[in-house]
Structures
1.
Amino acid sequence: RGKVSEGETVERKEMYKRRKKGSFFFFKQKTAYEMLRSLVGSEMCIRDRYNYGDLLCNVPESKTCKSKKGMLSFTPSRFGFPRPFLWDEGFHLLLGCRWNEDICLTSIANWLDTIDDNGWIPREQPRGEELRNYIPGLVENNNEGNPPSLFFPLLYLYKKTESSGKVNIFIEQYYQSFKKWYYWFYRTQNANKRSGGYADRFKWWGPIEEINLGSGMDDYPRFNGTSVSEVNIDAQVWMIFWSDAMRLFSGDLGRQADKIFFNQRFQNTLKNMAELLDKSDLLYKDLLVDEETRKQHTFSQHFGYINLFPLAFGLLPKGSAELNATLDFIYNNDTIWSEYGLRSLHIHDEFYGVGSNYWRGPVWVGINYLVLKGLKLHYSDVPEAVKIYTELRENLMNNICLLYTSP
């Protein structure tokens, strides 16, 4: 709107400082952490993006694909992967919602507005030719879901007293979309699609077993020889979390029949998680089945991020042998612990660092955050958990700081 005066510039800088101080954790000292916090906060504010257009899908007749829709996303405006990702968005909005609630809710609404009649939300949204130029011919598959991480920022706002009125209105407005999305996942990612008799047990379904884009952890190994996934522990945990959130929302909205349904799903899915506990080492794992006979069941012998999901969501009882086993597994330089954060795969796994090496070793901030969140919220009175939380947090922050400041 023209030249900004010096007085307006100073005023806006002060407004930014006040909002930043009120929105994010503040380091008292002028440390590298504090400077990094300022840098990340600034980039978040200027790098959110809006794109508009259609999608290429394996079901061209889908309204959500052929219709031109808008998408406001906190996915950074970047050259590599310059498009919104569904489960990434939930993590990005944990920052976005602290900064500006209205923009955050608008982004969540844009995602929900792309839901199709069956409840599917495309996990990637490169709407328009410009975004698709990075990977020409990128096609969204309506068999692939994504974790419901959008409920992270939504629950954060829901439990924030000063935001409750606004968020309650939003949840009521989009409640049917939440239900439709949940039901889609419940139907399409259910383990009984193939073998029968697996109600309230879940796995990630996609075109091939070797690459599992829907889970978000694309090339993480989900197979042993001829055995493939029957039930996935991370899918099971995500559904426990999702069912819990839906029973909360439905209850507060007075939808008693829905509350009963979601509570039953929560109880059953939590109970069935016990079947994924390998009693030989007390770690929760994927359950595999022989691809040919469909009879011989074994536990996956690939260790890494997926074994941490029960801890990350606070599902391991305090004082339990299962909690101790998971903490021991984490805090071990010979497994996934490193001075940079938790590795995605056990360093002695046959697939460690193999192939595209995407989720086969590298440290991912999102999963490290989930583990830190779980340790702090659910196990802050467990000495070993506190020790791991403190060291892991420092390792991860140092790593990110070094990456930002390296030439």
Note: The first strand starts at residue 49 and ends at 53.
2.
Amino acid sequence: MTSSNTNTIPNVPFTLNKYHVSEEYGFLLPLPRTDLPEYYQPWMKIARNLTDLIEAHTLRNEVNKLPLLDPGYLQGHRELRLARMALSFITMGYVWQEGEHGIVKTLPRNLAIPYCALSRLLGLPPILVHADGALSNWKKKNPSGPMEIENLDLIVCLPGGDSFKGFFLVTLLVELAAVPGIKAMAAVINAVLECDDRSLKRALEDLASSIQSMTEALKQMHAHVDPATFYGMIRIFLSGWRDNSSMPEGLVYEGVQEDPLQYSGGSAAQSSVLHCFDELLGVRHGKDSAAFLSRMRDYMPSSHKQLVLDISAGPSLRHYVLDVGKPELTGAFNGCVAQLVALRNYHIVVVSRFITVPAARVRERRSRAEPSAEILTRAPSSLEERGTGGSGVMSFLKSVRDTTKEAAIPWDGNKTPTA
């Protein structure tokens, strides 16, 4: 948030409605469609059978036989999202079916043309993004049951079995845990605009509690995802064709553009939640990390990206708390920062278990030239120590954790807070 009194959020009350953010589901797509009309069943038939087709090494053959379908008959936002999601998953399977050593350089026109058309309509790049895998790829087993992992399932899957499902469902639960914080964020903005310190303190406490719940939700990753399966099998299907030595030139989308295009793979950095919280709390990341995060905003639904930008251009919460100088507000503000640091610390723990440690084991086996059928050894060498979005994952996470700490307002608990 800016320190200027000039901002793009002048109206009170500020609401989330125009950003397509749900009071119940946050950034998740509420109640996604699970099937498309008969005309589009060729897409859905392949999407529902991706794992079997990939494991049989027949996905590319099936995709090459697809008719060129016109996405213009799709109706409504949910149908558009499901169709794009199906084509996103098919694309990842098509590119990575044979691992890093059997990559195709061209996406066939019967897939590329409708995929790029749908992506343009939705303001997203033609590659699998967080909004596909985590925000719109879910359904309840029992429609009247709770939003708990035992009652949730994915609409479309790639190889990885229960670990693949677990990875995306836990990610969904982290997004769901953020919902009270997203609502609190709107309350914080309104309280600052109205100079309502009592409401501001309460909203900041709600925000801190929500971030803590996100950390607790993230802990479920250990129970539902096997590190070897994630590292050796799942990650490659989430990888992109930018900053990836396996595909240095990118991917040609046949019938769309002759030159290859480069796009980053799926990444937690594409989630709008932490971008919003960073902007609200005035977190300022280092040059390289900030550039990567800024680029990841182009991988968000356009309305969600606009919310991040509007919060960034709005009145500065941090400066307001400093100007007011009330210890109780400073304590509540710093409580939010502390919980955000704790979440990022725990994310580092998760990445260490699921990427850093398995990467070390793979390097050890390769250095000994040990033959092994272990799933871990299937991991692509181009992704060692890197995130699927292309970042140097551990250095990036530590950098954003450290700059988050710096957002806290210096205060000893007694004296007036200082900048």
Note: Strands lie at 106-107, 139-140, 152-153, 252-253.
3.
Amino acid sequence: TIEGVLSLEDITRLTDIDQIHRTLEIIHQREKEVDDELGKCVEDSEVAESNLDLIETLPRRLKNVFLDSKSLSKTISEACVLAENVSKKVRDLDGIRAKVKEATKKTEDILDIKSCVEGVAVAMEKEEYEVACNHVAKYRGMDSGMLEASSLALLRSAETKLKDIVLAKLESAVAANDEKQVLRFCALFGPLGMGDEGMEQYARFAQRLIAIDAGAIHKQLLKSLGHSYHPQTEGEESLSCVDAITRLFETIAGFIDERSATVEMNFGPGKIVHLIRGLQSQTDIHAVKILDLFYEHYNINRMVDDIGNSKRKDATSSIDAKDMAPLLDEIALMSQSAELFDRFIRNLAKSSIEKLKDPNEISTSTSTFKLKDGLVHVSSLNQRMQELIGQYLSIEQFFLQESVKKAIKLDELIPDSLISSSVDHVFFVLQKCEQRAFLTCNLPAVCAAVNLIITALTRDFREILQRNLADHFSGRSMMGRSGQDHHKLGYQTILNNLEVSSEYIFKVNSS
């Protein structure tokens, strides 16, 4: 059968010539296709024969590769054994070298022991205490197990004797107020294994020096304030409370700044924080004393109570606001000095702690000391200044309200001027209040003062401007005499007051 055409039996039955021709063409086409398929099979058979020939040669080639691989494996195994032997010898050499190093160190320690025993005695005899302490520091760094009993006893005896001498010399230097010798002997506490105690001893001595200077400042302030038991002599400098507290802060800050490098060099990094802590406590003591005198001199508590009583509706105020401006200026300056001093010591302590690998070694109690600077979180001075700032704001509020009321009460037309006197007077007072608040360097005080200014403008001053404008619209002029021309002039003045006040408000806001 011819696939897709006719069977052989069907072909023999064909009688139509056209149909025979068509069948013949189909047969020829199919024959061509079969020839093409046979040709492709022949080509594929040639490729297959070529691949078979290649496969026949592979065993011979792979045999050589196998032999080479076996040889390489043997070489690698031999190299591993050799490397293991070399590594073992290196380890043995390392062990021998460690033993040699240990023996050398023991030999050096034995020589150092002899040197320490002889050196301590000679140095103490010559009063070369730095050299003697260095010998003791060497002995302290040695293994006590390798020391002979006699050498160990001599060194311990020398260490005890040296500690007693250093303490005695330190006490003599402290009694003589000899800072150079105090620093010298406090620094010797470190090699003797008492570094922290040496730092504390120097910090206590520094507090003593500051107490002397602070006492002199306090005594001079008492004289200046006219205390009878401290009379002021002719030509002696007069101090105000602001001058006294500023001088105290400058003295302590200068002391810390001049000695910070020396303390770090003699006692180690971060130790300046211990000095600052001690002097911070001294600052609290003596600054609070000055603040107590300030309160007493100006009778601030009484003034604040009177201000509170004056706010009652039935109360009549006997306080003169004009006397408050100098007081407010002094409080602002004192706050500024306190804030700058506090910022100085905290920044210095913080930068010192940041140099340490473990900042936690400075802060002994996180509840008492701030972790970042290692100082008291809120000192007595901080608390007292916050109290003073609170009273400052009460006085400032009263002063502002009374000044605005007075300026409005005395409001009058100014010759050859387009505005009345109250505008300049009110905004002058507001500007002084703003400047004084910024002078305190205290952010809460600045925010509170701004609120006071806003209240004075929106409640007191605006109300007066609106009232004046309403009076002129109703024909009741508060400015000028009766008559149309004067009424017109007053009306124009009030409009000018409004315009100039708006300009001043923008200036205050921009500042």
Note: The two ends are 113 Å apart (CA to CA).
